[in-house]
Amino acid sequence: MAEGGGCKIEDVCARRGLSTLPERLVRRRRAAGDSLRDLERFFNRELLAAAMRAAGMELLDDEAANVYRLLTDDGVSDAARTEATDRLTRAGVDVQALREDFVTYGTVRTHLRECAGVDTARASEPVDAGSVTDTVFALFGRTEAVTERELSRLAETEALETGPLSVSLAARVTCESCGEEYRLLSLVERGGCACADAGRGAGESQT
Ligand SMILES: [Zn+2]
Ligand SMILES: [Zn+2]
User: Fold this and answer.
1) Nearest CA to 51 among 95, 109, 19?
2) 3-class DSSP state for residue 82?
């Protein structure tokens, strides 16, 4: 797939002058662990934003995300979708061509796997407690590092006065059935909440 015409993602990016976009998909997958659905949305929004900018439309915060939702979300009324389409068309955006260039998560997966050599099997691999906690704590680690860095930047201004800072995240998980709250790691180590205890306790006496 990497040779010849390239995949749809590469074709569309080449045609629309978005040369860094295929690589940004790979980076988001590798660095942030974005799901294929996240990447589908990200890619299509970038296409939409580029088309809107090319037509001279001014993009305010989150505007591309909002217009994308109007164009594609099942919960949007026909009237709202038509209005969004008309507004784009009046500005000179070829909405039909844009829709044809939108990709599905399957196309994203093919691109990651065939063109970029990224392992996309992760989501369908069997999960175990160790791999889940590894994923979560790696994410916490990155979040802690970013939080520390941002707070340190703030501490260089007059807005925040502190000594050296260290950030630690802790997740608490609550079961909506029994209402018991656990630290993330203890719940995973425990192997279940009070609901499971009740199930186990039904046939035996609890001590
Ligand atoms: Zn590709
Ligand atoms: Zn429970």
Assistant:
1) 95
2) helix
Q: How far is the CA of 106 from the centre of ligand 1 (A)?
A: 11
Ligand 1 centroid to Cα of residue 126, in Å, is 27
Distance 206 CA to ligand 2 centre (A): 17
What type of residue sits at position 25? L
Ligand 1 center from residue 114 Cα (angstroms): 7
Task: Calculate the CA 159 to chain-centre distance.
Answer: 32
Ligand with minimal distance to 194 CA: 2
Which residues fall within 8 angstroms of residue 120, CB to CB, at 6 or more apart?
Answer: 29, 36, 109, 112, 113
Q: Tell me the pLDDT tens digit for each residue of 75-115.
A: 899 999 999 999 999 999 999 999 999 999 999 999 998 88
Comparing CA positions, the residue from 38, 40, 35, 33 lying closest to residue 9 is: 40
pTM score:
0.58
Q: Which letter does DSSP use for residue 73 in this model?
A: -
d(CA 192, CA 169): 22
Spatial distance between the Cα atoms of 174 and 41, rounded to a whole number of angstroms: 30
Question: Per residue in 15-57, pLDDT tens?
Answer: 999 999 999 999 898 888 888 989 999 999 999 999 999 999 9
User: How close is the Cα of 35 to the center of ligand 1, in Å?
Assistant: 17
Of the ligands numbered here, which is closest to the C-alpha atom of 199?
2
- Ligand index nearest the alpha carbon of residue 176: 2
Which residues is 53 bridged to in the sheet?
A: none
